[in-house]
Design goal:
The structure holds two protein chains of two kinds.
Chain A lengths: L1 E10 L2 E11 L4 E5 L6 H8 L7 E6 L2 E2 L5 H6 L1 E5 L10 H5 L1 H5 L4 H14 L4 H4 L9 H13 L5 E5 L7 H18 L2 E6 L2 H7 L2 E6 L2 E6 L1 H6 L4 H7 L3 H7 L17 E3 L4 H11 L3 E6 L2 E7 H15 L1
Parallel strand pairs in A: 3-8, 3-9, 6-7, 7-8, 11-12
Antiparallel strand pairs in A: 1-2, 1-4, 4-5, 9-10, 12-13
Helix pairs in contact in A: 5-7, 9-12
Chain B lengths: L8 H7 L6 H19 L3 E4 L7 E3 L3 H20 L4 H24 L7 E4 L1 H20 L13 H10 L6 H9 L1 H33 L2 H16 L2 H18 L1 H5 L7 H25 L3 H9 L4 H34 L9 H9 L3 H32 L5
Antiparallel strand pairs in B: 1-2, 1-3
Helix pairs in contact in B: 2-3, 2-5, 3-4, 3-5, 4-5, 4-6, 7-16, 8-9, 8-12, 8-14, 9-12, 10-12, 12-14, 13-14, 14-16, 15-16
Classes of the chains: A alpha/beta, B mainly alpha.
């Protein structure tokens, strides 16, 4: 869908991005991960030409983005930024309607679309439509930011640290909400983040960048189990597996079995916490309950099995 | 009177929705003192003609009594019926005008036609006190529906003027003898302010937009405008005489257009230069104050530079920018009064004529309308700012 070929951006003698080759698969969320200053934001901004490449090119659906007028290109790419960037002088509805208006949609179609999108991001249109951004919490404002980016139904969504400025609780909730939305809409998403947990949790794929170049591109499992370099292993940390487990529900690993006498956990618990319960209780199996009714058994071996599979695949 | 002996008495203050806050109480006391003094001081100055020295006349005893009562009324009302304080203060203002009318009429009755009865220190002090009282009443009733009572003096005072009740007052006699000329000078004053402001907007708005994106240019432009502002207005008018008269001599075509060393051309030039700084300064600051994240988002959504300006930058900068325009307008009302010195006309004409002949009434004929004009312009533009502020949300 989006392809970067020998993409480069120089500032004087310094390279912000150097000879970057990357294909973002259609309908998937790719996390552009890396330490600050690694060139991930520059890369994102070269896709919608807010920053012009010094060399190389960006293909969008096989077409060179330089063949389009920048404004035309950008109207087809949803864009969400960290500081949210909502227009403080416009209402929530007017903010969301920005791109449809630039595209010249008629009033009724735009209004209907705005309501649909506010519902999609979990904001009651009747309540929020007429509010000004100043009246919203950080999480609500970021939801409006996502709705605004989706307004004209672009196939591509570019997100620059969209959840970076939120408190941990709001960030968790918004990441969950966004995961749901993405599962329904299947957009091609490029998400810039320095947060490893966020990349592991949301990314179908991760492109890890280091000093303007690509360190590794692959699925989260690839990066965790088959790191391409010491840098990748070091950046993800020795507890990367735990971070990945934290993003998954314990219920995913449940198999039938006899729960009698086992320590009990709720099925909404994440897998890392379930592992913590095993360590605390000194048990290698847990009874998983859904609303008090036994669902099955979660075993130590089942939590490991993915690693084993991965290692087998490697061999 | 012992408060501690009454249960409830101490508590009442805490529950009473209309207690008088300490600061407002002080304001109302400060209002009472000048009114009391004004009542006791000479009220009318009667002179055989407008230049001769005259006799001070005091209020008759009955009116002195009424005046003392009125002086205390706003303070008393604030204690007893706080919501009616505005009405009491307005009553004092109207009474001041009414008494001035009756006393000047009585003074000139039977005098020669050249006799002038003007307002003496008592009237001015009384008005000062009454004005402070309306201000205090406004504070007391702020954000309550009764706050409009502090303006209740407006219609009756207008009625007193229109009915001819104040026609014996020397300022109005001067005004009537000037008649159409006065209206003309007022119009000239408004024209000077309007054209100066218009020209400054025509130059300043594009310049501010251009400079807001350029660090160095912004510094230079603001520095130049600042330098002009530090020149005293009289000096600037004087400095403009030489180059403009030289221009007019060199190019007779310019003279045909009305450009010369004295008159409207240098006045308009000076007014334009003065109005430039507030318009430029606020414009540059406001345009630069638009958050970069907002601009980035707007560009990222595919706005063209023109759309970015009209839909995002201008609306967000407008409230701050407009307050600069308001400052410029008020400033120009004052500078335009000075422009009369170089023959540009306007209300300043009366001020300087009055100063030359030591005729206080003539000075007032120019000064009071100019002051009211500045206040009115300020209020009108403030209202516009608030309206636009509401329309565009509470700024960034």
């Amino acid at each position: 869908m989006i392809e970067l070929q020998h993409l480069e951006r120089r500032y004087g003698d310094a390279y912000a991005v150097r000879d970057l080759n990357l294909k973002f698969p259609e309908g998937e969320l790719t996390a552009l991960l890396g330490p600050s200053g690694c060139g991930k934001t520059t890369t994102l901004r070269m896709i919608n030409r807010l920053t012009e490449p010094s060399a190389g090119r960006v293909l969008l659906g096989g077409r060179d983005t330089r063949d389009l007028r920048p404004e035309e290109l950008r109207r087809g790419l949803g864009y969400v930024i960290q500081q949210i960037g909502l227009f403080p002088h416009l209402t929530v509805a007017q903010n969301v309607a920005t791109v449809p208006e630039l595209l010249g949609w008629d009033r009724r179609r735009t209004a209907r679309r705005v309501d649909d999108l506010l519902e999609l991001v979990g904001l009651d249109p009747a309540v929020y439509r007429a509010k000004k951004p100043g009246e919203l919490s950080g999480g609500q404002a970021q939801r409006v930011g996502v709705a605004r980016a989706l307004a004209a139904d672009p196939p591509v969504l570019l997100m620059d640290e969209p959840f970076g400025a939120l408190d941990p609780l709001a960030r968790d909730r918004l990441q969950d909400a966004f995961k749901d939305i993405q599962q329904r809409l299947r957009k091609t998403v490029v998400l810039v983040t320095h947060d490893i947990d966020e990349a592991l949790r949301l990314g179908d794929r991760i492109a890890l960048m280091h000093a303007g170049t690509l360190a590794q591109f692959g699925t989260p499992d690839d990066l965790i189990h088959r790191p391409a370099s010491p840098f990748v292993r070091h950046f993800l940390g020795e507890d990367a597996v735990l971070r990945q487990l934290a993003g998954r529900a314990a219920a995913e690993f449940v198999r039938p079995g006899d729960p009698a006498g086992l320590p009990r956990i709720a099925d909404t618990l994440d897998a890392r916490s379930a592992l913590g319960v095993m360590l605390r209780e000194g048990s290698d199996a847990l009874a998983v309950l859904r609303e008090g009714v036994p669902l099955g058994v979660l075993r130590w071996d089942d939590l490991r099995v993915r690693e084993a599979q991965a290692r087998k695949a490697q061999a | 009177m012992s408060v501690s002996g009454q249960p409830g008495a101490g508590v009442r203050g805490a529950y009473a929705p209309w207690s008088v806050p300490g600061g407002t109480g002080t304001v109302l006391v400060l209002a009472t003192l000048p009114m009391l003094a004004g009542t006791l001081l000479p009220w009318v100055l009667l002179r055989p003609n407008r230049l001769a020295p005259g006799d001070s006349l005091r209020l008759p005893p009955a009116l002195v009594g009424a005046g003392l009562l009125l002086a205390a009324l706003p303070l008393l009302t604030a204690r007893l019926f706080p919501r009616l304080t505005g009405l009491a203060a307005s009553l004092a203002v109207v009474a001041g005008f009414w008494a001035l009318g009756t006393q000047t009429q009585a003074a000139v009755a039977g005098q020669a036609p050249f006799a002038r009865a003007s307002a003496a220190s008592g009237v001015w002090l009384f008005w000062l006190g009454a004005g402070i009282a309306t201000y205090g009443a406004g504070l007391l009733t702020r954000s309550r529906p009764e706050r409009w009572l502090a303006w209740a003096w407006g219609p009756p005072v207008a009625a007193l003027f229109l009915s001819g009740h104040l026609n014996a007052w020397s300022v109005l006699i001067e005004g009537r003898s000037e008649g159409p000329r006065w209206v003309q000078e007022l119009g000239q004053h408004l024209r000077l302010v309007g054209e100066g402001l218009g020209l400054a907007l025509l130059i300043g708005v594009p310049l501010a937009v251009w400079a807001s994106g350029r660090e160095r240019a912004a510094g230079t432009v603001l520095g130049a405008a600042n330098a002009v502002q530090t020149l005293p207005s009289l000096a600037l008018l004087g400095l403009l005489i030489a180059p403009l008269s030289a221009l007019a001599n060199a190019f007779p075509a310019l003279r045909a257009l009305g450009i010369s060393g004295i008159g409207v051309a240098p006045a308009l030039t000076a007014l334009t230069l003065y109005a430039l700084l507030p318009i430029l300064r606020n414009g540059v600051v406001a345009l630069r104050g638009v958050p970069s994240g907002t601009l980035d988002a707007a560009r990222g959504m595919g706005m063209t530079p023109a759309q970015l300006f009209w839909r995002v930058r201008l609306p967000l900068a407008l409230p701050v920018w407009l307050s600069g325009v308001r400052q410029a307008a008020v400033l120009l009302v004052g500078v335009a009064a000075v422009a009369a010195l170089i023959g540009a006309g306007g209300l300043g004409t009366y001020i300087f004529k009055g100063l030359q002949s030591a005729a206080t009434d003539l000075i007032l004929l120019g000064a009071v309308p100019a002051a009211l004009l500045a206040l009115g312009l300020d209020a009108a533009l403030r209202g516009l700012e608030r309206l636009l502020g509401r329309h565009f949300g509470r700024g960034p």
